[in-house]
Amino acid sequence: MSKPQLSFEFFPPKNDDQVEAFKRTRDHLAALKPEYMSVTFGAGGSTRARTRETVLNIHRETGLEAAPHISCMSEDIESINELLDTYRDNEVRRLVVLRGDKPSGGGSGVFDHAADLVRHIRRNYGDRFEIEVGCYPEYHPESASAFTDLEHFKEKVEAGADSAITQYFFNADAYEQFLDDCNRLDIRIPIVPGIMPITNYSRLARFSTMCGADMPMWIFKRVKAWEDAGDFASIRQFGEEVVTDLCRRLLDMGAPGIHFYTLNRAQATLKLCRNLGLGESGASSVDAVAS
Known about the structure:
This protein is an alpha/beta fold. The chain has ten helices and nine strands. It has a single domain, classed as Alpha-Beta Barrel (TIM Barrel). It is globular.
């Protein structure tokens, strides 16, 4: 049996003052030798330049594969092609293709759906890029139904996606059911669970509301109570136990790997990888890494 794939997601530093802190986090996690590191793309393409700079720096400074998010929410087709040309010319080989978040002031992007952008990339760049797309075991909050959400996912696969990363979730049964539904629709690409470490109630609750991820009540009640009491050590310990157990169950189900949403912090993700035996053993000591 092959070793599970390991990958990490970052967002680009928001300003120059954050760059050095980001690089420290990146380098601690790079020591695990993940398959790749992905970098998000802001709503409406708002972080395009910083996403590109962060991706190219990962590629040059760590020797690891970097995977930029590419969003439909760019302002024109020329800006998308310019990005794709830059990544091609700099030997970036993997993309995470998403519809993307709409700008807060409204508006739409060049393409209506991620499948349209996948088709555009395949039509103009052939097999030059390995394309990852997103999927939702608990279903996209804007979908009319579970069935229509699966149909949208299948369309992305048929357009040329190679593999998929899920939105984060805390219910392994949801992932198992999603795989069964995909099998019934003859969707056969690898589907890697996206996992969010639990370290902070307020941030996690906000993200879960935005993306439609279900936060089970038994997790919600405990984490909120500890945060209200200012007991962040208990949150971190509880979160480590819960997420480690979740990941073990997913890997036992045959998940091809784990994709961690790091929020640009190393400690919680390093602990989870250590618990799960993921990555190379020569990584930086967890105890020496600030969260």
